[in-house]
Amino acid sequence: MSSGVGQVVENKQVRLKRYVKGFPVESDLYVTSDNTIELRVSDGSPEGTTLVKNLYLSCDPYMRFRMGESQIGEFPSFTIDAPIDGFGVAKVLDSKNPDFKVGDLIWGRIKWEEYSLITKPEGFFKIQHTDVPLSYYTGILGMPGITAYFGFNEVCSPKEGEYVFISAASGAVGQLVGQFAKLKGCYVVGSAGSKEKVELLKTKFGFDEAFNYKEEHDLVAALKRFFPEGIDIYFENVGGKMLDAVLLNMRVQGRIAVCGMISQYNLDHPEPVYNLMSVIYNRVRIEGFISFDYFSRYSEFVDAVLPYIREKKINYVEDVVEGLDSGPAALVGLFSGRNIGKQVVAVAHE
Amino acid sequence: MSSGVGQVVENKQVRLKRYVKGFPVESDLYVTSDNTIELRVSDGSPEGTTLVKNLYLSCDPYMRFRMGESQIGEFPSFTIDAPIDGFGVAKVLDSKNPDFKVGDLIWGRIKWEEYSLITKPEGFFKIQHTDVPLSYYTGILGMPGITAYFGFNEVCSPKEGEYVFISAASGAVGQLVGQFAKLKGCYVVGSAGSKEKVELLKTKFGFDEAFNYKEEHDLVAALKRFFPEGIDIYFENVGGKMLDAVLLNMRVQGRIAVCGMISQYNLDHPEPVYNLMSVIYNRVRIEGFISFDYFSRYSEFVDAVLPYIREKKINYVEDVVEGLDSGPAALVGLFSGRNIGKQVVAVAHE
């Protein structure tokens, strides 16, 4: 057993205070230490039970669905006054699971707390490669990476030389899609919400062009400027007005992979989309997907992406805040675009 | 040469009077006999030139695009004061085309006139099977049939037992999609715009259920009534409010094949669609397609569908009006749902 195992310690948690309507605010969540945990798996625990120390927590837009009261698709609501959960990286402190030894690092769905007792270990991946930052397993080597990799390479069916547009392009997923598209030989343009993010797209991620959507009063015209020949592939992260403008700029046989629509998540009523007739004229395919459907292909994904990281062919920018106390602001900041790159909460570094 | 060849005769035509805005009306077109044609291919005509007598003309919703002033996708506008054109069946009267003999029957894109001199014969199919009504080559064995067959079997990726919804279900395409879906072992519901059409769906075409959308004030609720488990496949012919209601009723991994959006063609501004977030939650694929992309597979299609017709496993209902004089009313009637089944104009029967 590692040192400290068996102790009873405070276990700080981030909990949901109330179901969110509209834009989430920090005070929809609260941080509390009114809870303790024994740092061992007790003798009577079922086989598979694992005690972990949580290291890095992932802030992802889909979590907004779970902060609302009504179940949306396969996203069950969080429970009021219980810790929220999401993807994260953790270290095994004690284990009745033959697959996980003390000291192993794993990633999967964990609660926003310092320590967690995992009773259903099926959804967890053991981290095999630790020569890259561990936080990467919340991003480029975790759920957002899977989203970007399969969303682009499978849902978008890309071909060399095609014209690719990505919204929310500096985010956890967008920055990767753009780099995968460049590796594929595509022409890549991204949109983001600040000058700093636009610079990042062009300098750090190698996008051909990028623009600040907040500075464009006519998105249809902006897209025509960057895509005089039209768009073959749109990787959709925002929805609403941007989607409507894209539809008027699609090429024949174009594809729209719908990863998210973050501009819509906090609205009481979604924004209208008017230009769907383009789907007929241009034979466009619009396809929604969820990364979970590709989790079974995780090892194929790691084999493909890890060399890019090691050879520095792909960059990954994270926005890491320190400590669970910073968690609520980090999570709700996603929806105002506060983060630059992948938003991570570091609970502990080891 | 057939009898009459070489004569100069009147050649009645249906011409466009003005570009259409909003709903087309009969007076947007006019019928005239101020034109003559010599019933032979003159000696100096280029190889391939074919003189035909037009028999059956197809009225199809896409023709509305061509009645407008601005080019929409790959649908060029008709020319003012020139005959309109569309798909149709014709008989060869004279030919400098080695593929087409006098007396041959062909279908393809022909002008709305009694006789046509075809100078580009590449797009025409020779009719090989005449044991079925010739008018079928404007419908079940023509463009609408190709649309229904490939649109359903390829774009929708159907599986036995799936829940299928079809709008404009008694139309030229919808009635076939429903029957193909039944042959595939699906549960099939259709919507249409009159009691008579709804009856036709249930009795003649074997739909499991059908409803009159004009009698439903809440389309979302109506669809929930017919699809308590949700919709796997939506064959989209109408767009607008129906699409919005369908989106809230889609099942996970559902597919929407977008064949047309007839409810939108005559509006100055398309209706809004609000519920596209369903595409993410439910991983829905929305795919537009155009039958022209499948014309190269026509013989495969005929081999599959002809036996169904001969064995009476598929019914096909046509609404045939007589004579070019009836053409304008028949064509514009599509947009008010006047037709029951496939709208055809019989210029001549042989």
Write up this protein:
Two copies of one chain form a homodimer. The first copy, chain A, has 350 residues and is an alpha/beta fold. Chain A has helices at 63-67, 143-155, 174-183, 195-203, 219-226, 241-247, 278-281, 298-310, 327-333; strands at residues 8-10, 13-16, 29-32, 36-38, 50-58, 85-95, 105-111, 115-118, 125-126, 163-166, 187-192, 209-212, 231-236, 250-258, 285-288, 318-322, 342-346. In chain A, strands 5, 6, 7, 8, 9, 16 and 17 form a seven-stranded mixed β-sheet that branches. Chain A has a six-stranded parallel β-sheet with strand order 12-11-10-13-14-15, sandwiched between helices. In chain A, strands 1-4 form a two-stranded antiparallel sheet. In chain A, strand 16, helix 9 and strand 17 (342-346) form a beta-alpha-beta unit. The model of chain A has no long low-confidence stretch (mean pLDDT 96). The interface between A and B is large, with 36 and 35 residues.
Care to give the gist of this entry?
Two copies of one chain form a homodimer. Chain A contains nine helices and 17 strands. By secondary structure, chain A is an alpha/beta fold.
Helix content of chain A: 10-25%
Distance between the termini of chain A: 16 Å
- How large a portion of the residues of chain A is in β-strands, by DSSP E? 25-35%
Mean pLDDT of chain A: 96
Rg of chain A over CA atoms, rounded to whole Å, is 21 Å
Count of DSSP strands of chain A: 17
Largest sheet of chain A: 7 strands, mixed
Structural class of chain A: alpha/beta
**Biggest interface, and residues per chain?**
A-B, 36 and 35 residues
Name the quaternary structure: homodimer
Shape of chain A: globular
Give, in order, the helices and strands of chain A. Answer: EEEEEHEEEEHEHEHEHEHEHEHEHE
- The count of helical stretches of chain A stands at 9
Question: pLDDT under 50 segments of chain A (min length 5)?
Answer: none
